[in-house]
């Protein structure tokens, strides 16, 4: 049985301040949905509303088609993993993992098998007798995941599960979580993070949050290639955001005409042109932007050039740069019309 999650206009407030504003969002059965956004945007609050740790002031939460808004946490069929592992220090690993099963009054005879299964699944089979203090941070987090999985949840809620780990462990655990998702294709996961790499790597879809509201939602590719808002464009990947005025089949950036797909945008309206830095080339080409080099950053495989183009700072990530331009050099940048996305243009009614 697989079940998804549905937020139906869910609002949460603390002391009269709305911290989650009418969230509408559906996580399909078996889907990994990342809630991505800066600190304080309401991500954890949304997760806690699913878990049953906060009560919405309005709206309903559904799990597997069932309205769970008024159910206590332990009756919602969820497993939860938080940033700080939250293992019981005085219990051995196996008893930590068994805890949720005992609390849910699982049949006694079933518990050892379920514990062993969950520990195997997270690669912790050999550590059942240890205490949490005898484990590294990464191992403790695996145990916390095993504990969440032992109850065979329909829904797994993960709140910044990797943020207490160092960078190298983090990428290893990310691969582990992706593997777990493949092994548990029926479990829906809601994954809170402020880290776009985690969201892009793990999620089937990303819900972008800012200021208590859902800003955007789509697959990583959709959000990256066709962001609908400036916020998404700059939060998911890196972006040049240039203020332009819409023309016909072109936009103007100051005096300069740039050929882009204007879709149904109304001529004369103001909009933002989004071009990813790695799609901006150095040298002459379509949509040439002459300017002066303001900064050069070496980033291993690429150079990031910051170029002043008529008062706008344009970022270009250039590969295989044989001769590094000096500060103040005159250069030309360019980008292909199909690599630019117009954001926030009014739609023409003509
Ligand atoms: P995020 O997970 O995106 O960092 P949160 O959902 O934790 O954001 O918090 C959203 C807002 O709600 C923040 O401004 C935070 O300070 C506030 N908040 C969270 N929990 C509480 C609480 N228990 N009491 C009062 N304010 C809270």
Topology:
Layout: E1 5-14, E2 17-27, E3 32-36, H1 43-51, E4 58-63, E5 66-67, E6 78-81, H2 93-103, H3 111-121, H4 137-150, E7 155-159, H5 167-183, E8 188-193, H6 196-202, E9 205-210, E10 213-218, H7 220-225, H8 230-235, E11 240-246, E12 250-253, E13 256-259, E14 270-275, E15 281-282, E16 289-298, E17 302-309, E18 312-319, E19 330-334, E20 340-343
Parallel strand pairs: 3-8, 3-9, 6-7, 7-8
Antiparallel strand pairs: 1-2, 1-4, 4-5, 9-10, 11-12, 11-14, 12-13, 14-20, 15-19, 16-17, 16-19, 17-18
The structure holds adenosine-5'-diphosphate.
Overall morphology: elongated
Number of strands: 20
Total domain units: 2
- Summarize model confidence as the mean pLDDT: 93
CATH class of the largest domain: Alpha Beta
Would you write up a description of this structure?
The chain has 350 residues and is of the alpha+beta class. The chain folds into two domains: 5-232, Rossmann fold (3-Layer(aba) Sandwich), CATH 3.40.50; 240-343, Beta Barrel (OB fold (Dihydrolipoamide Acetyltransferase, E2P)). The protein is 23% helix and 34% strand. Helix 2 (93-103) packs across helix 3 and helix 2 packs parallel to helix 4. It is elongated, with a radius of gyration of 24 Å.
Short description:
The protein is 23% helix and 34% strand. The chain is α+β, with helices and mostly antiparallel strands. The protein has 2 domains: 228 residues, P-loop containing nucleotide triphosphate hydrolases (Rossmann fold), CATH 3.40.50.300; 104 residues, Beta Barrel (OB fold (Dihydrolipoamide Acetyltransferase, E2P)), CATH 2.40.50.140.
